[in-house]
Amino acid sequence: MGEYMGTSEAAKRWGLKRDYVSKLCRKGLIEGAEQDGKGKPWRIPDNAKKPK
Fold this sequence. Notes:
Order of helices and strands: EHHE
Low-confidence stretches: none
Number of helices: 2
Radius of gyration: 10 Å
Distance between the termini: 26 Å
Protein backbone atom coordinates (compact mmCIF):
# COMPACT_ATOMS: atom_id res chain seq x y z
CA MET A 1 0.00 0.00 0.00
CA GLY A 2 1.36 3.41 -0.93
CA GLU A 3 1.68 6.51 1.17
CA TYR A 4 -1.06 9.14 1.30
CA MET A 5 -1.50 12.74 2.42
CA GLY A 6 -4.61 14.68 3.33
CA THR A 7 -5.97 17.85 1.76
CA SER A 8 -4.18 20.07 4.30
CA GLU A 9 -0.77 18.59 3.47
CA ALA A 10 -1.45 18.77 -0.28
CA ALA A 11 -2.55 22.40 0.06
CA LYS A 12 0.64 23.27 1.94
CA ARG A 13 2.87 21.50 -0.62
CA TRP A 14 1.15 23.01 -3.63
CA GLY A 15 0.52 26.52 -2.28
CA LEU A 16 -3.26 26.18 -2.52
CA LYS A 17 -6.15 26.50 -0.07
CA ARG A 18 -7.39 23.30 1.57
CA ASP A 19 -10.97 23.86 0.39
CA TYR A 20 -9.75 24.24 -3.20
CA VAL A 21 -7.82 20.94 -2.97
CA SER A 22 -11.02 19.25 -1.72
CA LYS A 23 -12.93 20.71 -4.66
CA LEU A 24 -10.30 19.38 -7.09
CA CYS A 25 -10.64 15.94 -5.48
CA ARG A 26 -14.44 16.01 -5.83
CA LYS A 27 -14.10 16.91 -9.51
CA GLY A 28 -11.66 14.04 -10.08
CA LEU A 29 -8.80 16.35 -11.04
CA ILE A 30 -6.25 14.82 -8.65
CA GLU A 31 -5.24 11.41 -9.91
CA GLY A 32 -5.63 8.66 -7.32
CA ALA A 33 -7.50 10.77 -4.75
CA GLU A 34 -10.10 8.71 -2.91
CA GLN A 35 -12.31 8.71 0.15
CA ASP A 36 -14.25 6.04 2.03
CA GLY A 37 -17.56 7.84 1.70
CA LYS A 38 -19.20 11.22 1.44
CA GLY A 39 -17.98 13.49 4.23
CA LYS A 40 -14.92 11.33 4.95
CA PRO A 41 -11.37 12.71 4.57
CA TRP A 42 -9.69 12.54 1.18
CA ARG A 43 -6.59 10.39 0.71
CA ILE A 44 -4.25 11.79 -1.93
CA PRO A 45 -1.27 9.73 -3.11
CA ASP A 46 1.95 11.16 -1.69
CA ASN A 47 3.40 11.37 -5.19
CA ALA A 48 0.36 13.09 -6.77
CA LYS A 49 1.14 15.96 -9.12
CA LYS A 50 -0.28 19.44 -8.58
CA PRO A 51 -3.22 19.86 -10.98
CA LYS A 52 -2.88 22.53 -13.64
